[in-house]
């Protein structure tokens, strides 16, 4: 999979992709992440990529021309399955969306800034709009990093145990069950006996019951879905 990202502040995206699982995915050749500085397509030698909004009002807007040029140039090199705009008013990210996007080949992400991007870019180029929550951040770089991580870890071969992602929270609309490791007894707090039984069928039944119980208590809305 290849993911291209258009950013006003590409420096913000250096660290997330240079460590841990995302680095491993790229080292294995399973994922390629390329961050492009939007100012490369600026309208003048001063790096201008934003302007005042028509109709007045506070805040600048990312201009059409730099974004259109960037999208068209990159799209000439490869076909994108989705052109994604990270925005607070997009569809809220969930595991189902990440699962679906992990099956794609090429993705292009646009990180918003200021008051957002000119609506004509959203209308004519963007195919999917995603939000990571009902709050506003300074820009789309952190949401892009979150989205890439949630997709990249699902690619076959990225995780050491490929079945691990199948039992994460939100798969099948359930939260993950409690997990334990050594020692069995820590300050009198003991690991449930069932997990020490060696009976894998009963252990799986217990884990499912715990997932349902935890979801009922913490995120009943997931069960309604």
Brief write-up:
By secondary structure, the protein is of the alpha/beta class.
What does this structure look like?
With 225 residues, the protein is α/β, with parallel strands linked by helices. The protein has two domains: 2-152, Alpha/beta knot (3-Layer(aba) Sandwich), CATH 3.40.1280.10; 169-224, Trp Operon Repressor, Chain A, CATH 1.10.1270.20. Helix content is 32%, strand content 19%. The chain is built from seven helices and nine strands; from the N terminus they run βαβββαβαβαβαββαα. The strands form three sheets. A five-stranded parallel sheet has the order 2-1-6-5-7. Strands 3-4 form a two-stranded antiparallel sheet. The longest helix is centred in the last third of the chain and has 19 residues, at 200-218. The mean pLDDT is 94.
């Amino acid at each position: 999979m290849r993911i291209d990202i258009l950013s006003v502040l590409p420096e913000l995206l250096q660290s997330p992709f240079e460590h841990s699982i995302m680095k491993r995915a790229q080292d294995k050749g399973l994922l390629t992440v390329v961050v492009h500085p939007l100012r490369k397509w600026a309208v003048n030698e001063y790096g201008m990529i934003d302007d005042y909004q028509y109709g007045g009002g506070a805040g600048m807007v990312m201009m059409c021309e730099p974004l259109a040029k960037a999208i068209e140039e990159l799209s000439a090199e490869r076909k994108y399955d989705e052109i994604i705009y990270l925005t607070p008013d997009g569809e809220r990210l969930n595991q189902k969306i990440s699962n679906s996007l992990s099956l794609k080949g090429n993705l292009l992400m646009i990180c918003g800034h200021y008051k957002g991007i000119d609506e004509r870019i959203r209308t004519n180029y963007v195919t999917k709009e995603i939000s990571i929550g009902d709050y506003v951040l300074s820009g789309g770089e952190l949401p892009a990093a979150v989205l890439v991580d949630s997709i990249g870890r699902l690619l076959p071969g990225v995780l050491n145990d490929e079945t691990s992602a199948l039992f994460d929270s939100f798969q099948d609309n359930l939260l993950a069950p409690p997990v334990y490791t050594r020692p069995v007894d820590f300050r009198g707090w003991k690991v449930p006996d069932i997990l020490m039984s060696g009976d894998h069928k009963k252990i799986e039944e217990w884990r499912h019951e715990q997932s349902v119980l935890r979801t009922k208590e913490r995120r009943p809305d997931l069960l309604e879905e």
